[in-house]
Amino acid sequence: MYETQQKILSWAQIDQWIAYWRFLEQRVVFTNGCFDLLHLGHVSYLETASRLGDVLVVGLNSDDSVRRLKGSSRPLQPAEARARILAALEFVDAVVIFEEDTPLRLIEKIQPDVLVKGGDYTEDRVVGADFVRSKGGEVVILPLVEGFSTTALIQRACAG
Predict the structure, then answer these.
(1) Where are the domains of the chain?
(2) Contact predicate 104/115, CB 8 Å
(3) In the CATH scheme, what is the code of domain 4-89+110-159?
């Protein structure tokens, strides 16, 4: 894609890009998360995910969604900032913010060829896994980078 800001897509825009990528017969990879404080574990994970196909789409939890999942002290950064940071990564092709607690509706909209989650998940706990497999796609669990987690980084920063 193009400039960072152009990679942040609305729900209507993602439809157009998915149609374009499908026309080009590109393999679409999808992952999601809060990405509240981007760290080496996230970057490594996203870079590896991007290698599983031609296009990497990242579903990003909205601020309200993060609060419901992580508590009232989160997110540390608003969704717009988190989206810009993710979009600045050269191996991320698109970022779409979703309001729900899970990305299921977005997964159903995108119908990715590959659904990726981190090693803190098992395949039976991956939201959308059954749907993706039913459409002929695959689910991939990537190992975590040891020693990196947003919660641990926040705790260390607050303690020090």
Answers:
(1) 4-89+110-159
(2) no
(3) 3.40.50.620
Q: Tokens 């303690």 sit at which residue?
A: 159
Cβ-contact 93, 119 below 8 angstroms: no
Helix, strand or coil for residue 147? coil
Strands (E), the chain: 8-9, 28-33, 55-61, 94-98, 114-118, 138-142
Closest by CA to 57, choosing from 9, 6, 16, is 9
Q: Give the pLDDT confidence of 2-36 residue by residue, as tens digits.
A: 577 899 999 999 999 999 999 999 999 999 999 98
**Could you read off the pLDDT of 86-118 as tens digits, one per residue?**
999 999 999 999 999 999 999 999 999 999 999
The string over 111-145, giving b where at least 16 C-beta atoms fall within 10 Å of a residue's C-beta and e elsewhere, is: bbbbbbbbeebeeeebbbbeebeeeebebbbbeeb
Q: Which two tokens stand for residue 139?
A: 């689910």
